[in-house]
Amino acid sequence: MLYVATAEAADDEMRRRIEEHRRRRPPAWETLEVRRGVGSRLWALGGAPPVVLLDCLSLLVSNALLDEAARRGEGPGLEDAAARAVEQELSDLLDWHEGTGRHLVVVSNEVGWGVVPPSRLGRIYRDLLGSANQRIAARARRAVLMVAGLPLELKRT
């Protein structure tokens, strides 16, 4: 099992969360920590294990959006630039998956059920993650929604 972690330790609180997450993982799992460029990093590994767990798509999308916002600001064009960045991340990941035949498990969050975010950046993020989740679920053989620790199977082909 290869665990792909997309979180970034930007502050002490997040460093503690990441460390706790590391401790909870089974010792036999390999870990790849990468905030962006997951598909290209997986290709670079060559012989990745037969199962890859990406945790999580939510942070990968956030990382892409925040990188674009830092590069160009939050003005006009941010939505399109961020959508292109997320599309590239997804395309690279799905190309790797199809090209290697490895089993890919993707963890993500559902952010569209809550209130509309008050900030433009929050609304862009919600829309980008919703689209990314739809794209991954459309390609998946199985999709499971976890609610209160209970699995709700959405799709099985």
UniProtKB/TrEMBL annotation:
Q: Which GO terms describe its molecular function?
A: adenosylcobinamide kinase activity; ATP binding; cobinamide phosphate guanylyltransferase activity; GTP binding
Domain of life the protein comes from = Bacteria
Q: What class of enzyme is it?
A: transferase
Q: Where does GTP bind?
A: 5-7, 22-25, 33, 55
Query: Which residues are responsible for catalysis?
Result: 21 (gmp-histidine intermediate)
EC number, UniProt record: 2.7.1.156, 2.7.7.62
Gene Ontology BP annotations: cobalamin biosynthetic process
Reaction(s) catalysed by this chain's protein? adenosylcob(III)inamide phosphate + GTP + H(+) = adenosylcob(III)inamide-GDP + diphosphate; adenosylcob(III)inamide + GTP = adenosylcob(III)inamide phosphate + GDP + H(+); adenosylcob(III)inamide + ATP = adenosylcob(III)inamide phosphate + ADP + H(+)
Query: What stretch or stretches form a coiled coil here?
Result: none
Gene3D superfamilies in the record: P-loop containing nucleotide triphosphate hydrolases (3.40.50.300)
Could you tell me which Pfam families the record lists for this protein? CobU (PF02283)
Q: What does this protein do?
A: Catalyzes ATP-dependent phosphorylation of adenosylcobinamide and addition of GMP to adenosylcobinamide phosphate.
* Family from the record: Belongs to the CobU/CobP family.
Q: What is this protein called?
A: Adenosylcobinamide kinase
